[in-house]
Amino acid sequence: FSSAHSEVFSPNKAMNIIEQISGLSFEVNDYPSEEYTDGKTHIFINRDLLLTGAEWYTGLESNEFGSAFEANGIVWTAPGDLLMGNSYTIVHELCHALMARQSPWYHGVLLNEGFAEYTAYLVLLEMEEKHPGLAVCFDESATSINNMFMSYEELYEQPIEYWFENSYEYAGNGNYAVGFRFMAYLHDVYGDYTSWIVNFEKEYPFKDKNQIDDESALEQRITILKQTYGEDVLDNFYPWLKEHVNDFEEQERKMIDISDLQEI
Questions:
Q1: ∠ CA 230-231-233 to the nearest 5 degrees?
Q2: What's this model's pTM, rounded to 2 decimal places?
C-alpha cells in the first residue's frame, strides 16, 4: 500500500514498529522450522489455508479471508487478509512471531493471544498518531477494543489462574478478551507487559524442554509472572480491572479518510 503521505506498507516497516512498541526483537533466540532455516521471519500469503469458520461470515471461501496463523516464527495468511481495513491480521500474527523469537513455548490462549492482540492494538495506535500513511491501510485501533467485548460476571467467579487453562466462553473472542485486559493491566501497573516472556525463556529454555508438546506448564507460567511482577500480580488483576472496566468499552468507529490513498 502507498499513500500521499509517502509511506509504503511493508512487513519490515510493520516489524520495526512492533519492536519499538514491545521492546522485543525479531533477531533473538531463533528456533527456525525444519523448512526455513535462514533465521528470517517469513510471511506467506496462501489461498490453500483451508481453515474453517469464515465462509458463513464473509460470503467468500473460507480460505480467502480470516485464515491466518503463526507457527515456528512463520506467518501464514490468506489473500482476503490483505484487504484494506483487515490487514492488521498480519500485525497480529507478526506479534506471535515476535513472541516466538523470545521463547517458542506456547503459554495458552490467554497469554499468547492476549500478547498478540494487545501489541497489535498499540501498534495501530502508534500508526494512527505517527504514521497516518500506514494507518489508512489498516483497520482502526478501535476495532481491537470492539473485538474484545466480554461479560465480567462469570470471569470473577474463578481466579485468573483458572482461565489460564480453561476456555472463557463469555466473550466474543473468549480468552483473547481476557488476555487483552491482562496485558493492559501489566502495562499500566508495571509499565511492562513483555519481560515475563524473556524471563520464562531464561528459566525454562525451550531447547531443554523434556516434554512431548510445546505447551508450558501452568505452574511455570505462574512462577515466572510472580518472579517478574511480584507475588500479588495475579491477585491484583481483578481489582484493577473493576476500576478500569470503562477503558474497554466499545468505541465509536471513526470514518477513515482514504482520500490520500493512491494505490493498492
A1: 70
A2: 0.84
Give every CB contact of residue 110 below 8 A, 6+ residues apart in sequence: 163, 164, 168, 175, 178, 179, 182
C-alpha distances out from residue 228 to 193, 196, 231, Å:
10, 6, 9
Residue with cell 471513526: 254
Q: Using one digit for the tens of pLDDT, what is the confidence trace for 163-192? A: 999 999 888 788 999 999 999 999 999 999
Query: What angle (nearest 5°) sits at the alpha carbon of residue 103, between those of residues 163 and 175?
Result: 20
What is the mean pLDDT of each successive set of 10 residues along the chain, which is 264 residues long?
46 84 82 58 64 45 61 72 68 89 92 95 90 75 85 94 93 90 98 96 91 92 98 98 94 63 51
Could you give the CA distance from residue 233 to residue 88 in angstroms, rounded to a whole number?
30
Q: How far apart are CA 229 and CA 192, in angstroms?
A: 9
Do residues 36 and 42 touch, judged by C-beta distance below 8 A? yes
Q: Which residue reads 511482577 in cell numbers? A: 229
Query: CB-based contacts of 18: which residues, under 8 Å, 6+ apart?
Result: 91, 94, 95, 98, 119, 123
Report how far residue 241's alpha carbon sits from residue 55's, in angstroms, rounded to the nearest whole number. 35
